[in-house]
Amino acid sequence: MTLTAVAWTVAGWLVVVGALGIVRSRNLVQTVVALSVAQSGTYVLLIAAGFQRGATVPILGAGGAGSTPVVDPLVQALVLTDIVVSATVTALLLALTVQIAKRHGTVDPDELRALRG
Fold this sequence. Notes:
Layout: H1 3-24, H2 28-50, H3 73-104, H4 109-113
């Protein structure tokens, strides 16, 4: 298998494992962790999409553009943005979980369903 195929496989596996964790979790904290695992699959997916064998860093010297291909820096920027958004969403969901635990005394989603008005 090539490196790209391995990266796509790992990305798909992380997303599937995270989705199964979300569906099967019995605790809101476990759900947030499973969502983080699924989001980490998107990092690998973006890196796999931007990978180019034999490409160099996108820093041009005094001579200008060379004849060798360079890696697109947009993919790296997207991964960094994805990491920041993931950290923010995780922090928000964990803060909401803490507030739910304080107000209702449980983080079990099945027990919270009974609270509907």
